[in-house]
Request: fold
Amino acid sequence: MKPRFLVSRLAQAAFVLLGVSFTVFALSHLSGDPVSLMVGPTATQADIDALRRSMNLDRPFFSQYAAFLGGVLRGDFGTSLWQHQPAIGLVLERFPYTIQLAAAALLLALLVAVPLGILSAVFRNSFLDRLAIGTSLVGQSVPGFWLGLLLILLFSVTLRLLPTGGSGSLKHLILPAVTLASFTMGRIARLVRTNMLEVLGSDSLRTARAKGLREFTVVIKHGLRNAAIPIVTLIGLDASALLGGAVITETIFAWPGLGRLVVQAISQRDFPLVQAATLCIAVIVVGVNLLVDLSYSLLDPRVNA
Amino acid sequence: MKVLNRLLALAAALSLSAAVAQGAPPQSSFVLGMSAETATFYPPGTGGLFERNSFLQIFDSLMHREADGTVVPRIATAWEAVDATTWRFTIRQGVSFTNGEVLDATTVKESIDLYRAPESVVASRYRSIVDVVAVDDQTVEIHTSVPDPFLPNALTDNAFILPTKYLAEVGKEQFASKPIGSGPYLLSDWVRGDRIVFSANPDYWNGVAGIQQVVWRTIPEPSSRVAALQNGEVDLIWEIPAIQVPLLERTPGVQVQSGPSPRAVYIGLWPDSPVAGGEPLRDVRVRQALNYAVNRQAIVQALQRGYGTLISQPIPQPTYLGYDPSIEPYPYDPAKAKELLAEAGYPDGFTIELLATARYLTAEESQAVVADLAAVGVTVKLVEVEYGQFVTRLTQEKSQSPMYSLSIQGTQGVDAYEIYSIAIASTGTFNWNHYTNPAVDALVAQMASEFDDATRADLARQAAQLTHDDPPWIFLWNNSSIYGLKDVWQWQQRSDDLISVYEDVSW
Reply:
């Protein structure tokens, strides 16, 4: 891998993050006023002004933005207006939960979807293929909130096997992970199938078979590797989406992930928290994309320019 | 003076509180399933309901209101109005915070000062205070700029007393996540977004809590809260959608409890709104017509499954001092509405904009209102926005519509004066429709400094009739608060939607 490739990707990443910081800052400040949401019905304009001053929200927009950027460079994202805690700390506190859930969902999706996709491709148009693709389509189309509630009704309320929500043990992770995995699972299975079909019919695989390799080696080593790039791209996209928090799943299962924190911060116009969270999510998305880009050059040496 | 009657017999109060429990509780921990959690444990930095509810578990205030409305002493053992602008509080001796810091008159003074500082979110509630003086270890005097009969209300389950030495030492940020209080429970674990664990304060001055542990679980999705109760994971859930009630009623081992919420929901009517179209509202007959036109009983029946009561005056609940039970809500009478509109010169109705947000009026409810108004010829342009947007439009006024959905809830919730002074008086900070009725204003001014409860209640009842006849709003309803509870417990619902596990739960 050439260092120039890495450096140019890193420079792009920094530029993207700066853009995100400005967009988020501007949008959140334009969208409303946290102070009028905070005070009760007895507050006068003078009370509101005093409070706004004490939060430094009365300063000109660009001076606030400059102060924010300066803080970020020092690692200080400001203090949450509602929670009175350093914003970055609140975000990092939620990360382990988001990572747990995202990793479990992604792992589950891959474990099911990749073998299923391969089998569907190898036994194209068989009963198994139709069943697998039908199921993936259903998994992809079923809304998360509906599936989540059904799982709760079945596994918690009726069978009493699993908790309805919360966190703290592996048991708590199962239902949200399954709910979250269902969408990604369907997407990956269908993509694996399509790409495998294309590769399985290719000349290189015919050659591999002609060499007398076992069918398993042909399909996995030669087939899957050649079909991998679009699949990795999709996994990267889904992974960064999952790591940004899964609001609906988190809400249904009362999972303390990042998604709920962000939505709450937005509805309360908690600017420092919104900014810290979005910047962190942006870092993840950019980071995952970077990894995906780098993995291309491992999977396909031609992508190294 | 009547207030002197409020001096409370200490012995009686002590025997009431915390003494209900007999024998060991059925479970050592009590799990609440709430729709949100507290954002902070720094009380001067918040005015939210969830926050106040969690403060109630770990802090003490000067006085406390029990579920039935009785005010009992807490940190203050007695209080009296020494003269028109001075309240004197006697502070309980021998109370300390869970870190050993002693609670005395100075602590009380310094705490109250924190609530009225400019950077306090709740400063406006204590606007009448000019000075708080610790006269000696046991006595605090509060001087007000004007006679303030309501000051004790503002200090009841509000203005929680904080360990000011510890606070000064660790600062607001650390206090907000690691609070120290003198209350029945102490904070022992907090997984943000998931659960807060409180454990009984072993040295609580008012008697150690019978229930060892209180777990506050945050379950934002109502269906999941209901499922958690069905599954036995939680003991008490709040905010149950009316549509889910039958499901819980069929579940063995749980029961549904409901009662009026602290909120009155209404549609404000502002003739002079910068958004055109409000002019017809100047005529009182038009405002009355709108009240006759909306079939509120049908909406409550169909969309809230009957879990709501119609309001006839600005006061949310009959429990308020000064509520007038003799005033009937406007009946549904579209013919009368049409007649009034015709008399006012709008036989063919008019077109007007309604700004609504789901927090006060759900999409179904606002559409039902719009349909009812259309039936008498009033065409409503419905503008539905997200809550944050709504508040911005309401408070900046430039884009506030001539009609808007809103609800009113007193911060003290006991005296009608509070509602009239903020939402109805022409100087009210929550009078977003700039309602002006000189006769009502005069009554509110009289109530403001009237120390005698009976006289004040009488003034409030006069104001109720005047505002009913010259309606500032389309009076809508009070949505009930609906709770679900495991059968092994008994729990008394409070009129302010708070839950004090220490007092309200028994077995």
